[in-house]
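Question (not urgent): is this output format expected?
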Amino acid sequence: MAKPAQPGWVLAQRVIKGAAIVVGGACTFVAFASLVGMVTGNAWARGVVALLLTAILPAAAVDRALPRGGSRARPGWIGDVVALVLLGIALLFVGLGQPVTRPLLVREGDRLAEDGRDVPAHVVYFLAGVRPVDALPPPPAAAPSASPSGGP
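Got this back:
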């Protein structure tokens, strides 16, 4: 029989798991919102569909991971599965898929910036691996000024 974990370790595990769920959930939400953004630019549609996918996928994984036959799962199992699924989706989309997903994330950051949501836009630009000034279109070229001599 394994010895129970020390109270300090249990607290550290819970804090790390909570941080993984929050960070993984936010990155997963942004990933799904940018995918939905390929179809529509509507902020409500992107947000609702991304929120549903962010909630449904971990719930489905928990359903598949729980033991069958009436046996009980160990305490904390559900939180572990949710954290792993959310961090896994975020890692696949933001980390490994970066060459393919960078334009999606940049466009999502542009949409957020256009809506006046500067802080979330900067976070999405960071996830895309670009600086906000890199993502903005170049300023328009200045029109040539008229000659002061009044010539033709």
